[in-house]
Design goal:
Number of helices: 3
Oligomer: single chain
Strand content: 25-35%
Order of helices and strands: EEEHHEEEH
Helix content: 25-40%
Number of strands: 6
Structural class: alpha+beta
Length: about 110
């Protein structure tokens, strides 16, 4: 999946596995499936950014997505089972996260 700076809103947004993953169907036919834990860890709000700088992991491995709403015309607002709802997830960021998560998974699977 390549990065496109002017990515449009997905054609379809679905919660999978009881909120354990978010699926996005993009206009180019690509499908992104993002685990709720990966999304929660990827939050770019000030609180989460500060925790990452401190080396603190605020995310439980069993966190799920409770609600998905439009934050504005170019982003989603996700509410997680731990109550966190501050992060905005722009379309271009969600599109890139799919590639980044795949790279992380491949790196973890490598010997």
């Amino acid at each position: 999946m390549t990065h496109h700076s002017g990515i449009n809103a997905p054609e379809e947004i679905r919660l999978l596995d009881g909120g354990g993953a978010l699926q996005l169907l993009w206009g180019n036919g690509e499908i992104s499936r993002l685990a709720s834990t990966a999304l929660r860890r990827a939050c770019r709000c000030a609180h989460c950014e500060a925790a990452r700088r401190r080396g603190t992991d605020l995310v439980d491995d069993d966190v799920s997505i409770r609600d998905v709403a439009m934050a504005d015309l170019g982003a989603l607002q996700l509410t997680f089972s731990d109550g966190h709802d501050r992060g905005r997830f722009p379309w271009s960021y969600l599109y890139r996260l799919d590639s980044l998560c795949r790279l992380d998974n491949n790196a973890e699977a490598s010997p």
